[in-house]
Structures are given as structure tokens and as C-alpha cells.
Specification:
The longest helix has 23 residues. By secondary structure, the protein is an all-alpha fold. It has four helices and no strands. Helix 1 crosses helix 3. The radius of gyration is 18 Å and the shape is elongated. The protein has one domain.
Amino acid sequence: MGTLQRIALVIAIIGAINWGLIGFFRFNLVSAIFGGISTMPERIVYAIVGLCGLYCITLLFRPSEEHEREGRIQPTS
């Protein structure tokens, strides 16, 4: 897994944790961090999380590294 994929996955997981906090405790961490300033920083954070989530969809359709390695190794007879 490449560096960009790992970063996107971490940001998407952080976004999922924020949604879990909202759902279970009615606490929005992003709003708590940026709430006093304006809504623009919040919107930027949500947009980045959304883009990372969309990028992570591509991970579903990529072959795993294990399958790639198995395909390259020829069985011995």
C-alpha cells in the first residue's frame, strides 16, 4: 500500500470516528476544534475527508499484495 493510500485511509478513518462520536454522543470533534472561528475550516476538513473516502473506494478494486505475490511465484513440481 502506497503512502498516498495510507494517508487517505487514515483521514477516512478519522472522519469515520468523528461520525461515530456524532452518532453515539452527539459530539462533533471537528466543530469543537473549529467551531469558534467560522464554518469555512470545518467545510474544508469535511471536503478533505470526503475526497479521501472517495479515493479509498479505489482500494476495494485493487488486487491485494498477497494475490500479486502468489501470481508471480511459480509452484515447483
